[in-house]
Amino acid sequence: MLTRSGVATCATAAASFAAGRVFGLPELFVVGAALVAAVVLAIAAVTRRRPVLTVTRTAHPPMVHVGEIARVDLALHNPTGRRSPSLTAWEAVGAGSVAQFRLAPIAPGATTASSYRVPTSARGHVTIGPLRIDRVDVLGLCAVRTWLTGSGEVVVVPHVVPLRFPDARSRGPLGEAVRTRAWSRSGTEFHAQREYVPGDDLRRVNWKATARVGDLIVTERAPESVRHCTVVFDPRLPDGSDGSTFEQLASAAASVVTAAASAEVATRFVAPGIDLRGPTVAPDTMRFLAGAAERDEAPDPLAAGRGTADGIGLVVLVSAVGSANGWSGPDDITLALMVGEHALSTVGTSTSRGITVDGTSASTLSASWDRVVHGEVRA
Q1: Environment class of residue 82 by beta-carbon count within 10 Å: exposed (0-12), middle (13-18) or buried (19+)?
Q2: Fewest CB within 10 A of the end CB: N or C in the chain?
Q3: Which residues, 6 or more positions from 232, have their beta carbon under 8 angstroms from its beta carbon?
Q4: CA–CA separation, 40 vs 131, rounded Å?
Q5: Residue 213's CB: how many other CB atoms inside 10 A?
């Protein structure tokens, strides 16, 4: 393939031939012939031995939060028995970015490495590759382009705000609701074992443990905590909302799912047409949210089905417009995490949407969550 310089050289040669004929100047024929010869030699130089390379790419890390650093490492191997020429490499990075770098000659059987940064300023699935290598002659007149098969992906997921998941010891309105629900169910769960002290209820003596160690051992129990959490993601936006509202919706949902999964609570994520659960719910949710976009459709509890897990449940609606009605079971507590200008001013109170949290920004989400869930705000 001729480069721009090659095309210009051919045009100049044609003009020289034409001018030489019109004006009867043989010198111009010589110039034209020399230019044509240069182009022919350039074509022969770059097409005689096409570069043969293989590429292996590794993303570090393959999943990254918005704004964090990610890079791709390339390992280019020369499997042939001859030295590769100097090359220029181009790798597509997402829809509108290209990584470009020079490759020095690679010895037979050798491997060379290169790396580049991946843009992570926005959520999304960033496709990397395929790799294009160009061989250009020394005069820059002709280039041979070779595509190396294979591609990869870096998943840029929403920012996660660190949240402490509620339990029966939480002191905020949500913690109170958990304790009230636990006592109404007469629910307790194992907390610890310790040696007997005078005054302990003998009904709490663990006789198997006592027989094993030779001393009286008492089992302590605590009020039942949240056993399962359903995060309902509503992708609708009110009229007039800008893109930042949806970004915060995605961030809020990612933050709650991460907190619940980290607390080893059975976690479920629901969105229109999506129902994720199981041991990989956190990374699966992140991958979904990386590509999520506004939709004029609310999650349907009748279509998805309400969770059937036993014990106290927490239903967290993440929305700028909606209601969590229909998602809560008899032992569930509803938390409405509202985003945008429609976030309720009555944060921490119980309304038709449930107990409310303001998730309009990362800072308000962190402070409001601590106040509602734990009855305090971390400094």
Answers
A1: exposed
A2: C
A3: 270, 271, 299, 315, 316, 317, 318, 319, 324, 327
A4: 28
A5: 11
Q: What is the pLDDT of residues 40-90, one digit of tens each?
A: 888 887 777 778 899 999 999 999 999 999 999 999 999 998 898 889 999
**Site of tokens 């949710």:** 285
Task: Please give the Cα distance from 89 to 198 (Å, whole number).
Answer: 78
Q: What is the pLDDT of residues 337-373, one digit of tens each?
A: 888 765 544 444 444 446 888 898 999 999 999 888 8
Considering just the CA atoms, what is the radius of gyration of the chain in Å?
Answer: 33
Q: What is the pTM of this model?
A: 0.78
Other Cβ atoms less than 10 A from the Cβ of 179: the count is 19
Region 54-157: CATH code:
2.60.40.10
Residues 332, 313: contact at Cβ < 8 Å? yes
* Residue 35 CA from chain centroid, whole number: 53
Q: What is the 3-state secondary structure (H, E, C) of 230-245?
A: EEEECCCCCCCCCHHH
* Backbone φ and ψ of 202, nearest 5°: -65, -20
Total Cβ atoms within 10 A of residue 311: 18
Distance set, CA 246 to CA 206, 230, 285 (Å): 53, 20, 16
